[in-house]
Amino acid sequence: MIEVRPGGRRRIDRVLGPGYLTGLGDLPLPVLRERRDEAAQEETDLSYLRRLLHARIDIVRAEQERRASGGESIVDRLASILADNALGPAAGSGRHQQLEPSRAGEHRRHAEALIGDTGLTDVGSLSDDKLAAALDTYAAEEASVSSFRRQVQGVMDTLNAEIAGRYSSGAATVDQLLDSELGRVEE
Fold first, then answer.
1. In whole angstroms, what is the distance from residue 113 CA to residue 35 CA?
2. How far apart are CA 17 and CA 157, in angstroms?
3. pLDDT for res 179
4. What values do phi and psi take at 92, rounded to 5?
5. Residue with more model confidence, 36 or 6
6. Is the pLDDT at 79 greater than 90, yes or no?
7. I need a surface site. Which of 93, 114, 138, 168 has the fewest CB within 10 A?
8. What is the mean pLDDT of residues 162-178?
9. Of residues 27 and 108, which shows the higher confidence score?
10. Cα first-last separation, the chain
11. Does the pLDDT value for residue 47 go beyond 50?
């Protein structure tokens, strides 16, 4: 399970730490943007891990259904099993992120480690009990990841609201943003 460690050094520890949103009104705009971008990267990574978990949940459920109905093998149906969620309606936050996961390999290892030695590479060889246990483990982890993802999205919303408020009040301007993006400094 993912956990947040107060005072920890990982990005999730910082983004969901108690002081991350404290005193936003006193922070310079570039610091607000850095924090928002850091939170956005964490949200991207959590979304990636969540998708990995959903794929594994889908595979386990498909194997359970195959056993109940005597259908074709999981290997023969794998592409359609994984495509069902990819083609279906989005159930997420509706946020479009242009970021790539920064820790994809770490997340894949995390998802694989959840089941340990059961080896989901061949779900057909697992007993019904191990298959049910795998599903429970993946579902519990997905719920945990989703909860943290929603918390990170709340942090992003708060930071975006502060940034938007500054533009709305005139405390920040698009010209200042362009100048900072182009590396120009006001004298």
1. 30
2. 16
3. 60
4. -90, -155
5. 36
6. no
7. 168
8. 78
9. 27
10. 50
11. yes
The answer for residues whose C-beta is within 8 angstroms of residue 120's C-beta and 6 or more apart is 56, 59, 60, 112, 126, 134
- pLDDT for residue 167 is more than 90: no
With b meaning 16 or more CB within 10 Å and e meaning fewer, what string describes 119-148?
A: ebeebeebeeebbeebbebbbebbeebbeb
Cα separations in angstroms, 170 against 34, 173, 174, 175, 176: 20, 6, 10, 11, 11
- Give the count of beta carbons closer than 10 Å to the beta carbon of residue 181: 8
Cβ-count burial of 13 within 10 angstroms (0-12 exposed, 13-18 middle, 19+ buried)? middle
Distance between CA atoms of 164 and 57, rounded to whole angstroms? Answer: 39
CA-nearest of 139, 135, 156 to 63 is 135
